Amino acid sequence: MAAQFFNRIGQIGLGVAVAGGVINSALYNVDGGHRAVIFDRFAGVKNQVVGEGTHFFIPWIQRPIIFDIRSRPRNVPVVTGSKDLQNVNITLRILFRPIPDQLPRVYTTLGVDYDERVLPSITTEVLKAVVVSCGGIDVKTCLGAQFDAGELITQREIVSQKVSEDLMERASQFGVILDDISIVSQGFPPASFGESYQMKLIPGPACPSIKFASLPRTESSGFVLFLQTHLTFGKEFTQAVELKQVAQQDAEKARFLVEKAEQQKKAAVISAEGDAQAAILLAKSFGDAGEGLVELRRIEAAEDIAYQLSRSRQVAYLPAGQNVLLSMPNV
């Protein structure tokens, strides 16, 4: 009787374990910041996007594909030439994320590694087209450049606008949009262009000059981009800029020295004119007063000398017209 009871318990436990394994194999979890797309072996990719949480699927028939919908960074460096034949290193920093509603289309057309397939090609093409090409002409057939190295800094808003326009148009073919574009400049030191420069493209009310500031988000979009551009120039260009600034400082110093010498010359002329005017006035006074003015000055000088001698302890006063040695007593 006891053996039958334990056998019954074992059968029940085995059945529960098998049922639990089957149920567990039909469950999958979608973590926070992720979405899932269901691939059905008979129906293909379903248009439904599964949100966060635990969900059921049919094992061996359906398969969940998990997408990370959080923003992720990617740097795309491009080395191109400017209008003045300077090498310019432009790094386009992209914070991208897929739009949840478009995940089935993104997976069907691009796959899970959509960023590897789209971002490097379109960013390189657009950046070279903006910096190297001649407005609408293909990069391969254009012999000129739109901007020189200095204009990439002084006209960075125009450069950013052209990048956003061309990248928007090119990426729309793959279901990609640009979102929140504005221009933020960081690290533009006046002494050197060789350091890193940033232009962050985020359209919105803060930047009304960008015509894409009010563009609505399209339903055919695949994923969102945030742009941040870094510009660096070649070593030779950096040295040339530094030498130019040193020469400008030397020229300013020489100009200051010339102005200082001219001011000193004017001061000497004014001082000489003052001395000459004083001499003329003295000569006129002597002519009017005769020798009386000279005697007055002589008396004033004698009084000053007597006052100074009276304050000195090492000065002895002797009677005038007497010999001191003769008046000494006999020893």
UniProtKB/TrEMBL annotation:
Domain Band: 26-201
UniProt-annotated location(s): Mitochondrion inner membrane
Keywords recorded for this protein, A-Z: Membrane, Mitochondrion, Mitochondrion inner membrane
Domain of life: Eukaryota
Alphabetized InterPro entries for the sequence: Band_7, Band_7/SPFH_dom_sf, Prohibitin
Primary localization: mitochondrion
Pfam families from the UniProt entry: Band_7
Keyword Membrane: yes
Protein name: Prohibitin
